[in-house]
Structure to design on (191 residues):
């Protein structure tokens, strides 16, 4: 007997975390095993005061839920989607194919091929359906890029992004000064 693989696509709004303000960024991932890679995106965005929706949406295991999310994302007020997946990493590209929102793909490091499979899956999008792709395991940069996209129309957020960059600059200046002060051998000792 033939088994139907066609499930009804839900037309109901998907559940979202109870927050006072509507989320501006969605951080979605193919599996909860991707969360350690994706949490830096969530943390840096929340640190900037951006409301984030975090979801597990699998292109292969829950395709109907992925479709419903992507189709509803813009109408729900989301501005940017960060999508992480590993291996046969179709989630970012499929979400991008169903939404005009900017999608930032995060290749998750896979066990078998160290994430090169994920990177190639995400980065080789056909002409017309772009996905901005960060490094393998680049959750932090994906969150920062999402913040920079929002900052185009949010001067307060733009100032926070600049302050973040300044903190990176200051940290390197301090390390350089300490290296010069201690010498390389002693610096290595205290690392
Ligand atoms: C992908 O398969 C997910 O994005 C994840 O990186 C990978 C493995 O998923 P699990 O087997 O850990 O659920 O769809």
């Amino acid at each position: 007997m033939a088994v139907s693989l066609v499930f009804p696509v839900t037309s109901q709004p998907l559940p979202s975390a109870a927050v006072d303000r509507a989320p501006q960024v969605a951080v979605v991932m193919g599996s909860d095993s991707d969360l350690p890679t994706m949490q830096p995106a969530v943390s840096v965005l929340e640190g900037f005061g951006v409301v984030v929706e975090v979801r597990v949406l699998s292109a292969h295991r829950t395709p109907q839920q992925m479709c419903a999310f992507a189709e509803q994302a813009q109408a729900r007020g989301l501005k940017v989607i960060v999508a992480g997946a590993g291996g046969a990493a179709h989630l970012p590209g499929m979400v991008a194919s169903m939404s005009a929102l900017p999608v930032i793909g995060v290749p998750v490091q896979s066990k078998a091929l160290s994430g090169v499979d994920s990177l190639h899956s995400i980065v080789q999008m056909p002409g017309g359906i772009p996905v901005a792709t960060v490094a393998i395991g680049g959750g932090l940069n994906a969150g920062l890029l999402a913040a920079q996209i929002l900052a185009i129309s949010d001067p307060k957020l733009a100032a926070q992004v600049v302050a973040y960059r300044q903190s990176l600059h200051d940290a390197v200046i301090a390390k350089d000064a300490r290296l010069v002060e201690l010498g390389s051998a002693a610096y290595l000792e205290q690392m």
